[in-house]
Amino acid sequence: MLAIAKSLDVANNRIGQIVSVTPLLLVLVQFTLVLMVHVFGIGSVKAQESLQYINALMFMGGVGYTALAGEHVRVDIFFHKMEQGKRDLVDFFGTLFFIVPLCILLWLTATPFALNSWQGFEGSTETTGLHLVYILKTMPLLFTFSLSIFAVANVIRLGHALLKKDSGAE
Asked: Which one of 58, 65, 110, 163 is most buried, by most CB atoms within 10 A?
């Protein structure tokens, strides 16, 4: 089972590596847009719309990697003071009772949302815009996929650590 968790972590790391270029890409496109508009007086709806796609890819694609790296936001003020075993317990049940149901709900709602958009290859409302709205509407599935593989790997990894601790085999 730990081999499955490790392979899911590798997949999430790969997604994170791919998505890691998006902040730079976002800055470059925005900088180019500012130059085009304010220096040359040229606008581009496609370039402006591309910022939404890049932003969606950056945040929705990187969620699983961020969670795996432990860089997600924690509201719990007691968590960082806990010993590792208690943190593992909180993470295990938090993943099992909050993230897994969220992923199930997202799979059930985001899939028809994306499929409906793909059926008609939904495009931009702007005639000169990007006619790839169906790809933008697929980003919630990327979010769900990334978070789901994190959740499965986390439940396996933490479950193993908790069982190992309970059996006394450290």
From this structure: 65
What letter does residue 131 receive in the DSSP assignment?
Answer: S
Give me 34's structure tokens: 């500012």
Integer CA distances (angstroms), 116 to 45, 102, 111, 113, 132, in order: 24, 21, 9, 5, 13
Q: Count of domains in the chain?
A: 1
**What is the pTM (predicted TM-score) of this model?**
0.86
Tokens linked to 2: 């730990």
How much of the chain is helix, strand and coil, in % rounded to 5? 75, 0, 25
* pLDDT tens, residue by residue, 58-115: 999 999 999 998 888 776 778 778 898 888 898 999 999 999 999 999 999 999 999 9
- Domain residues for 123? 2-166
Q: What distance in Å separates the CA atoms of residue 84 and residue 103, rounded to the nearest whole number?
A: 26
CA dist., res. 127 & res. 123, Å (int): 9
